[in-house]
């Protein structure tokens, strides 16, 4: 089902999508999208949405199963509290990507903004995964409580750091794999930097394999490189804060 | 207007701006279209624009633009203006009736130069003289507000959605080489005409998405230099800070930005010695001018457009370039709405300004 979104307000666009879903439609191609918010929000089941243009904020928020492909850049708040499904972004994404994400996967070919993966979480078999092709800005993985964040640092301009300042501040669960250099002063005091071993590569491989296939890259190349791993060394960094 | 009782103010808003560095002027249609796309970022309680290069026939005159509560206030205030300025031309700012813009104050425009005798007696520079009289009107003439006082530029603002405000002021009939737009979402102070963005003094016009939580300290700081905050909202103080830092103290733009959004001490500690000394000095001298809290701002001036984020990136800002035109907006979609295929799009880093400079003659 093709929908021309040019000039459509987000309410009209999302209502249209919902109505077609009720009629049994499962595949959508949205063209001329520009700034319409909340696309894919709360949708459940096997639905596929391809987006030409720049979708607005909170793309795929609370989404529970569908797959979204953005043929361009995305704005802020993608995959906010997403529960299941997949978001693939061919360009860059903005701030607070994967905010409180609970499951599913987000792939971004380019770079991402500030506070990415803030308060991602996991529970038993639900482990959200985020793979960023380029770099990330400050507060990456802030208050991260679970899940896997992988940052690859592909194609960064010379001198551009792969991650910003206050990486993993308040982190108390999950793991970050960063394919590049992060100094101790860049990270929050709740996390530590480690070298990776084979078990880490085993964790990354299936996701990097899919990332490589999606964007026509070589998985072995992606697995190579000076990865570092960041994990919290306390599960309850603020456990004593109100204990007086 | 409800400017009698006020405390503080927060807002979450939308902004869009562009400058054609070559000086080529365009009508207000594009900027209205861009800010209209960000409609849902504002709530109808304030919209406004700043436009540069719009009064070429009076380019060397100060364009004082005022809101009056009523004609009585207007007569009283005009007496004050007459005493200190030669008025070359004056009249109501043209508007059209627009559904969505409620009862308006009296909106008048004066093209003026300071009276030579008054200027001589004041012992002030011409610009300081203008600033002083703008402050005096805003502070002492109840029901009169100067909302624009620059040369060859003007602010246009009202209570309403920005696209309606643009229509109301007939911005399609003006041509500018730089347009700055704002849609307001006030959450803590009244949505009144004077409280809409931009806030201006001389050629400076500022629009802001966010909240200056250091407003109290900043306000008291600029008061020491004769600036008085009267518009009941935090953003106003930023206009005066820029006037102080850039015009009075003649700081380089980058240094002024480092005053408002300085690097954290931890980051300064990891800088090379020379930079460390510079930023340490800036933070020491201008501690009271640091703007804390979330902000994305765009500052317009005669020959420059500047966009800046707070140092922990608590508000969105995207920039793009195509040819001679530099765009900034709260959302990438706001840019693509009027420039579908920019050469480059980027998200500025915290505290790192996006700067466009006028290189050619306005045409």
Record the strand order, biggest sheet of chain A: 1-2-3-4-5-6-7-8-9-11-10
What is the name of the CATH superfamily of one domain in chain A? Glutamate synthase, alpha subunit, C-terminal domain
Under the CATH scheme, which architecture of chain B would be assigned?
4-Layer Sandwich
Distance between the termini of chain B: 39 Å
How much of the sequence of chain B is in beta strands?
A: 25-35%
Q: How many strands, what sense, and barrel or not for the largest sheet of chain B?
A: 7 strands, antiparallel
How would you briefly describe this protein structure?
The complex is a heterodimer of chains A (244) and B (363). By secondary structure, chain A is an alpha/beta fold.
Description:
The complex is a heterodimer of chains A (244) and B (363). With 244 residues, chain A is an alpha/beta fold. Chain A has 3 helices and 11 strands, in the order βαβββββββββααβ. In chain A, helix 1 links the parallel strand 1 (2-4) and strand 2 (27-34). Chain A is globular. The relative contact order of chain A is 0.09. The mean pLDDT of chain A is 95. Chain B has a single domain (14-357), classed as Aminohydrolase, N-terminal nucleophile (Ntn) domain (Glutamine Phosphoribosylpyrophosphate, subunit 1, domain 1). Chain B has 363 residues and is α+β, with helices and mostly antiparallel strands. The longest helix of chain B is centred in the middle third of the chain and has 15 residues, at 126-140. The interface between A and B is medium-sized, with 22 and 22 residues.
Task: Give the helix/strand layout.
The complex is a heterodimer of chains A (244) and B (363).
Chain A: E1 2-4, H1 10-22, E2 27-34, E3 48-54, E4 64-70, E5 84-89, E6 105-108, E7 129-132, E8 145-151, E9 173-179, E10 191-195, H2 198-215, H3 219-223, E11 227-232
Parallel strand pairs in A: 1-2, 2-3, 3-4, 4-5, 5-6, 6-7, 7-8, 8-9
Antiparallel strand pairs in A: 9-11, 10-11
Chain B: E1 14-20, E2 26-27, H1 29-37, E3 47-52, E4 62-68, H2 71-84, E5 85-92, E6 106-114, H3 116-122, H4 126-140, E7 144-148, E8 153-158, H5 162-168, E9 175-176, E10 178-183, E11 199-201, E12 204-210, H6 215-223, H7 235-248, H8 253-260, H9 265-269, H10 273-285, E13 295-301, E14 304-309, E15 318-322, E16 325-329, H11 332-336, E17 344-346, E18 354-357
Antiparallel strand pairs in B: 1-10, 1-16, 2-9, 3-8, 3-10, 4-6, 4-7, 5-6, 11-12, 12-13, 13-14, 14-18, 15-16, 15-17
